[in-house]
Amino acid sequence: MSDLTHLDGEGRARMVDVSAKADTTRTAVAEGRLVTTPEVIALVRADDLPKADVLATARIAGISGAKKTSELIPLCHQLALSSVKVEFGFADDAITIEATAKTKGPTGVEMEALTAVAVAGLTLHDMVKAVDPAATLDGVRLLTKDGGKRGHWTREPATDSASPRGRTAAVLVASTGGAAGTREDTTGPAITAWLDERGFRTRGPLVYADAEIAAGLADALSGNPALVITTGGTGVSPTDATPEATRAVLDRELPGIADAIRNRGTTVTPHASLSRGLAGVSNGTVIVNLPGSPGGVKDGLAVLDPIVDHLLAQIAGGGMHDE
Q1: Could you list the residue range(s) of the whole structural domain that residue 86 is in?
Q2: 84 domain-assigned
Q3: Which of 38, 165, 173, 176 shows the greatest Cβ crowding within 10 Å of its Cβ?
Q4: Annotated binding site for substrate, which residues?
Q5: Domain edge (last residue) among 119, 154, 189
Q6: 148 shares its domain with 217
Q7: pLDDT at res. 1
């Protein structure tokens, strides 16, 4: 009568018999977002809400929710979960939630990952509702699943008429002198040339004063490129603000890349350790902060060179997983 496995031959709901299925390692990743105000996001980031530690509480709630999935969803099987991981990030208008559930058994853990996101999100709502009763839990969805007869599945990237994605990039220079025309920048053109050599369709260099770098980043992201590389504004002077502007738009950080860039730089000069540059993902776009010096840019591009293709493939939902 139907291809839906939770219906019997007469269309009645049933619990699927999985006893004949082989035990395999199964993993599922789901995500969601609590849309709220910038004020709430700032309070959560500063751990300054009147209730307890918001993120720690929501994380425990998400893990507990995953463990109780079979009690909440009538036809789900009881699974022996190997692990559940719940992580949070911040966007301008939302707290992002990502849950990874893992087991070894005859059926998948998609519902456990989705339940972890939903319960963590509802807990976030409960914790912030006194400040923002209009907060909305949105976009709860499965991203990937692995294991079983069907192997790997990943959600197709959303098609967006404003999004060329593909092999596109933008270069953003944070330079007050460059924006005023009193100083020649060489790092932006060097990055553009590096990208051109690797087949990217590149926009920029876009040059913004340090004080306007947040607007510059919004400009760079407006074309929805696959990759944004910034240069400058990563130091500790009072006007350096690139890391702060970047962190405000990231959904997930990639600290290993930023650390690798700093480590490579310190082999040349100890001043490289002063760089506060970040790397991460904002709505599917990879952002990498490089220092403002030509040597720092050279070191940063050397770090990116062997990983950029694999990185962009994984962000797009492809690429090999080494786990």
Answers
A1: 24-154
A2: yes
A3: 173
A4: 75-77, 111-112
A5: 154
A6: no
A7: 42
Are residues 301 and 181 part of one domain? yes
pLDDT of residue 229: 96
**Mean predicted confidence (pLDDT) in 286-307:** 94
Same domain, 296 and 251: yes
Total domains present in the chain? 2
Binding residues: 75-77, 111-112
Residue 122 has pLDDT above 90, yes or no: yes
Residues known to be catalytic = 126
Q: pLDDT at position 29, please? A: 92
Report field, pTM of the whole predicted structure over 0.85: no
Q: Looking at the structure, tell me whether residues 187 and 279 fall in a common domain.
A: yes
